[in-house]
Amino acid sequence: MQSVASRLETHHAVHWEAGARVEAAEACTLVLFGASGDLAQRKLLPALYRMALDGHLSAESVILGVALTSWSTEEFRAEARRAIARASADGSVDEEAFRSFARRLHYVPMDVTDASEYRRLRWALERAERAHGARGNRIFYLSLTPTLQAEAVRNLGDSGLSGRGAGRWTRLVVEKPFGVDLASARALNERIREHFDEASVYRMDHYLGKEMVQNLLLLRFANRILEPSWNRQHIDHVQLTCAETVGVEGRGAYYERAGVVRDMVQSHLLQLLALTAMDLPSSLSPDAVHDAKMAVMAAARPFTPERLRAECVRGQYGPGFMNGRPVPGYRQEPGVAPDSRTETFAMLTVRFDTPRWAGVPFYVRSGKRLPRRVTEVVVQFKDGPLAMATPNQLVMRVQPDEGISLRFATKAPGRVLRMHEVALDLRYDDLFDERLGEAYEHLLLDCMLGISTRYVRQDLAERGWELFMPVLEAWAAPNEGIALLDYAAGTWGPPAAGRVLEARGHRWNDGPEKRR
Prior knowledge:
Blueprint: H1 4-9, H2 12-16, H3 18-21, E1 29-33, H4 38-53, E2 62-67, H5 73-87, H6 95-102, E3 105-109, H7 118-132, E4 138-142, H8 146-158, E5 170-174, H9 182-195, E6 201-203, H10 211-221, E7 235-243, H11 252-277, H12 286-298, H13 305-311, E8 313-318, E9 320-322, E10 325-327, E11 345-350, E12 362-367, E13 374-381, E14 393-399, E15 403-411, E16 419-427, H14 428-431, H15 439-449, H16 458-476, E17 485-488, H17 495-502
Parallel strand pairs: 1-2, 1-4, 2-3, 4-5, 5-6, 7-12, 8-17
Antiparallel strand pairs: 7-13, 8-11, 9-10, 11-12, 13-14, 14-15, 15-16
Helix pairs in contact: 4-5, 4-15, 8-9, 9-16, 11-12, 11-16, 12-16
């Protein structure tokens, strides 16, 4: 039987080392739908610029922006420069580097729902590719709402842009959110299947591009001291937290339709959950990793009304204080109904009916207006054999300071046998001199290289909705009697969320004074 190490080596050099080894991806044209939108301006254009600076974009590659906004190519380039300046640490732009980058930027104003305009898109594509010597490989990036995604896919297919000739490829990147519920996710998948092969579809969840999330597999399976204890015999419980200090920041109308489960839990936290709980994949090939993630999530216990009342909590922030300053409650935010029943906090107890995890609760929580911004996975081990010993705890921080902390007990100095808790702490910024690339840089390069490991496969995208739709439906039904609890902005959510853990002898990892 292969060892863990040898199984990890399979495909490792081909896939995970590819981004480090390859200076530039194969030449392609990236068609960015939604190019005038917030995501493109804040994340995608700055990421593409940094990729060009790092030598990951070939000289022949083209970026074609598409949006309803009536910009010219020159106006698009000017907006891109402003976006890159805003994203830089000091607000400056290397003018010579930007001029080189800007030459590859082109723009087409069009309505993505109008099938007749895709002929103009084809002409613009072919003209830009001829001008830059591009080779005909294309990525269509859909930074659009789910409804517009489906329209764009249909029109790309009907216009013949979804297929390529011999030696050329076309890939489709579908940005989060992938549907707004199970029915819409399935409908979008069905539309995509009509025009694209699954192997060419890349469903984006940018958390999968973060350094600590990338590190989860290697941390778990490449370290012999961890894998043998990563199970119910040694682990007491697991906490996954994604806490935000901000409110809805002017997106009240959107958040009223979404809520925290749609916005964070069924996407980002689902991926962290799968990587934390999955069994060892047969290799690190994309399909093997996707299979392992899907297998554990398929074993997640369904949420029943009884479980929702006993093991889960929903809340909504009210007025409070953040950093000593008063802030309004959710219902006072612009665009929010004064009697809104939308949850801004969710705490869910996930259980896996597998030999590895039977009886181990996974406490998942996310919320807005919490005391600090943090995304982390906390693995709480069981008590040691000595009654005086503090249980070991492994903390994997995804943001803001990516790193790993292992807490364990040792003897305090002196003649008296006294226990002292210490931590081995690794922060990526302190350990490595090189710049940590942004998540979108990693993921865009992966797509250009044809590596889908850090994207979301169709079955897991639908499984996330299957798992959490009963939660959304029960919380939306007034006759279920599941309360929407208030919490003050600047606190860790409704106190009931803490009581769920306390009833089992657990405690949230909310600070150094609270360990278990």
